[in-house]
Design brief:
Order of helices and strands: HHHHHHH
Number of helices: 7
Shape: globular
Helix content: over 70%
Structural class: mainly alpha
């Protein structure tokens, strides 16, 4: 991301990444205000959207390997495991285990950040990308914790 994107494109990447955090912020706000939207509460929105975003991040790891930028079978296996774990969140929420679901989502996002940190140290991800991931992951995890505390 450091070398390939223009300043304008980098600005768009930042804006789009942060806008991707909006549903997590909305879920936290819904939990605080105890509101529902389309029959869903903050927990339902947070764990469902969290599973989608975690799957997207795991797909980025596959792209690194399949695109030849990273050469690591461990990355494919770990990203699959984290993706499957993330999808346990909505299942647990549906069965009445909201806090467990949100705890899993937090663990998955922190694990994905740890993986991206390792990839950055190996030179497979840029420092700029990692800094962006730290910011958005911090915001997402904070929102998930708010929802969990109020679940």
């Amino acid at each position: 991301m450091d070398d390939i994107l223009s300043k304008k494109e980098s600005g768009w990447v930042m804006a789009l990444t942060l806008s991707g955090g909006l549903p997590f912020g909305a879920a936290a706000l819904m939990a605080v205000l105890q509101r529902h939207v389309l029959g869903l509460d903050g927990t339902g929105i947070a764990v469902t959207y969290g599973a989608v975003i975690a799957s997207f991040l795991c797909g980025l790891h596959w792209g690194l390997v399949l695109g030849g930028r990273a050469q690591a079978l461990w990355l494919l296996i770990l990203s699959n495991l984290l993706c499957l774990l993330a999808w346990c969140g909505p299942l647990l929420a549906l069965t009445g285990h909201a806090r467990a679901a949100l705890g899993i989502e937090v663990a998955v996002f922190l694990s994905l950040l740890a993986v991206d940190t390792a990839l950055s140290r190996r030179g497979w991800l840029s420092g700029k990308f990692l800094r962006l991931r730290v910011v958005i992951t911090s915001l997402v995890v904070a929102c998930l914790i708010v929802v969990a505390l109020l679940a």
